[in-house]
Amino acid sequence: MVDYNPMSVQSVKYRKKELELKSLLEITQAINENKPATVLLDIFKFTCLVHLNIKSLLLYMIQEERYDKMISHGLKNKVPEYFNLSDISYSKESGELKLEVPKDFSFSELESYLPVYHKEKLLAVLFLKKKSEEEELDLDFTQALANILVVALENKKFAKKQLEQERLKKEVEIASNVQRMLLPATLPNSTRLAAKVTYVPHSTVGGDYYDLIQKTEDEVFFCIADVSGKGMPAALLMSNFQAALRTLLRSTSDLKMVVEQLNYTIFENTKGERFITFFLGYYNYKNRELVYVNAGHNPPVLCWEGENRTEFLGAGTTILGAFEALPFIELGKRSYLKGFTIHLYTDGLTESINKKEEEFGDQRFHQFIRSKNCMAPKRFHDLFFQEMKDFSSGAEQRDDITLLTIRFQ
User: Fold this and answer.
1) Predicted local confidence at residue 12, as pLDDT
2) Which of 153, 244, 339, 385 lies at 20 to 30 Å from 50 by C-alpha?
3) What average pLDDT does the segment 19-44 reach?
4) Quick one: signal sequence residues (predicted)?
5) Does residue 103 sit in the same domain as residue 222?
6) Least confident among 169-178, 185-194, 310-319, 376-385
7) Do 189 and 272 reside in the same domain of the chain?
8) Residue 234 banded pLDDT, cuts 50, 70, 90
9) Cα dihedral sign for 239, 240, 243, 249?
10) DSSP result, 284-330
11) How far is Cα 260 from Cα 258, in angstroms, rounded to an integer?
């Protein structure tokens, strides 16, 4: 004859409920205190192993495009570190889980599984094995606890992603402000010297740079550059580049020395991982001489007023920042120049496409220049960008576009 003590059974039930509530309180308190994911996972694991008659457990949770192993305890068989989204399917109607895993792995020792869903999305799967056959496993409470854990971890991921997006947004805003400060606020517009720029960044922060510096009444430096990369790194590199350029030009008019020093500065800062294509020109009104160096940039187009001819300014060297020392350098010179225009541009202009995926191209650009020989810069830009607009017909812009036109008299 077996003694039956209903009060003892009732006490066990109350004790079990007390432990469950304590576990629930502990994990919710940790969530409210914004404890790290590792702490939440440890609390969940401890609760399962100590209070819920669970001997072995295995938790996989969705991470981007796959399910990663988050908890593994008490397993003899080898299980995968992760499995792909396409490897698993679960039917809510039948409750059937299908999981494709390589032959080296096995889930056979685990008796139960609990899927965790949120808005029709399978967030996690918890595999379980009981300690004792005599005791029942409270699957409802385990499911509720797993739901709380997984949703909390998902919320932490979402909050982290939002913070990262805010950080990137702030970074882009700072980079955009830095870039605006680098570019000249105004350009000369007189009979003697007139300039017009059109700058259309692909995104909030572009990789193009242009400048025009009147060192004296008779000396004019002008340049255009395309910095590799985008965002804050490109903006910081451009800032450093502009500061170095302006410092050098204050002390010398030797373009060879300027370009060699700029190359050294860029290489030292980036160790050859970033580079800049660059064109630097210098015009002296006294001797009517143009000196320039082209460091791997699209050759600017020089056209003479009253003459139906153009020339490409390609002499120079290779891109800046790729080598510790430039392998060669050649200065371009044109003498007795008076009444001429130079068009400087970046490759985003000629590589613009239309809806047929056709590029605007160098030839089309050069033909347009010849047809509008030495026109006033502002008028030239108005007509040219209308031409580009008609060509692109609303096609998406893929790169920064910069056109700097300077007319010397």
Assistant:
1) 61
2) 153
3) 87
4) none
5) no
6) 169-178
7) yes
8) confident
9) negative
10) ETTTTEEEEEEEBSPPPEEEETTSS-EEE---EES-BTSSSS-S---
11) 6
CATH of residue 110's domain is 3.30.450.40
> What six digits make up the tokens of 366?
């050069």
Torsion sign across C-alpha atoms 37, 38, 44, 47: negative
User: What is the distance, to the nearest Å, from the Cα of residue 70 to the centroid of all Cα atoms in its chain?
Assistant: 29
CA distances from 72 to 41, 60, 80, 89, 102 (A): 11, 9, 10, 21, 18
Is residue 178 one of the residues assigned to a domain?
A: no
Strand partners, 84: 66
Residue 83's domain spans which residues? Answer: 11-157
- What CATH number has the domain bearing residue 227? 3.60.40.10
Give pLDDT, residue 6: 54
Q: Quick one: tokens of 149?
A: 């854990």
Distances (CA, A) of 194 to 116, 258, 407: 68, 25, 5
Edge-to-edge, what's the strand order for the sheet holding 310-312?
193-200, 401-408, 340-345, 301-304, 310-312
Kindly state whether residues 131 and 207 are assigned to the same domain. no
Write out the H or E segment, with its range, that includes residue 238: helix 231-251
pLDDT of residue 3: 53
Number of domains in the chain: 2
Packing angle of the helix pair 37-51, 6-32 (nearest 10 deg): 170
